[in-house]
């Protein structure tokens, strides 16, 4: 096994929907510069790099085309999917990953994969005029979290219709700008969109890490712990969110669309 490469669509059961991630599985340790070059070559929101450790767990790192990031949900889902699909893990085995966000795990539950991630709390803050202008919408609530900002707007329709000025949004503090609203359809509890121009991602199609913020936020507003959420990007994707104290369980499906080897 040397530098196996996969492209996986996450948080969907249909190819060409959800969020595409590249997954590189290597048998040896790679330099950060090499991983960054591969991520730039793949030119997807994130590329996950997976390497088995001596204790049978895995090292996991994530790179955008521009930089390494601390947490990525859809690429972790993709990485776990690849490990089970290729037989590198048996289906009843837990995928345990050592990452910049601590130890993360994934388990297979039928057709779904459940990720165990840290909950990311948000703190109320005052929205700036520059953010409102870049976003093109007035916040109902504005909060900051460790990854960036969380903005609630008036309705799901406002979320869907957003057309932010990405160069201006890239100048607003924070790597990830999460915009959310109450769902206007009964199958979902809330909807969201996520913009990350500062780290080379204009709009992220479906963002697992964002739901580590969204779950606790909507729990605080509704008292519920379990949600079905829809990220209303062009590709779209569904995330089941279960808030469990200081952790968030994220559930989704994944499908492989490409596989090969870096030569």
Q: What's the layout of helices and strands?
A:
Elements (H helix, E strand, L loop, with lengths): L3 E7 L8 E8 L5 H11 L4 E6 L5 E6 L4 E2 L3 H13 L9 E5 L2 E8 L2 E7 L4 E2 L4 H7 L5 E5 L2 E5 L3 H6 L4 H4 L6 E7 L7 E7 L4 E4 L3 H15 L3 E6 L5 E8 L2 E6 L1 E8 L2
Parallel strand pairs: 2-3, 4-6, 11-12, 13-15
Antiparallel strand pairs: 1-2, 1-18, 3-4, 4-5, 6-7, 7-8, 8-17, 9-10, 10-11, 12-13, 13-14, 15-16, 16-17
Which descriptors would you attach to this protein?
alpha+beta, 263 residues, globular, 2 domains, 18 strands, Diaminopimelate Epimerase, Chain A, domain 1
CATH topology of the largest domain: Diaminopimelate Epimerase, Chain A, domain 1
Whole-number count of domains: 2
Number of helices: 6
What Rg is obtained from the alpha carbons, in whole angstroms? 18 Å
What structural class do helix, strand and pairing data support? Answer: alpha+beta
Low-confidence stretches: none
CATH superfamily heading of the largest domain: Diaminopimelate Epimerase, Chain A, domain 1
Outline, from the CA principal axes? globular
Helix-strand topology string: EEHEEEHEEEEHEEHHEEEHEEEE
CATH class of the largest domain: Alpha Beta
The helix fraction, in percent, is: 10-25%
Cα(first) to Cα(last) distance is: 12 Å
CATH architecture annotation of the largest domain: Roll
The average pLDDT is 95
Counted beta strands: 18
% residues in beta strands:
35-45%
Largest sheet: 18 strands, mixed
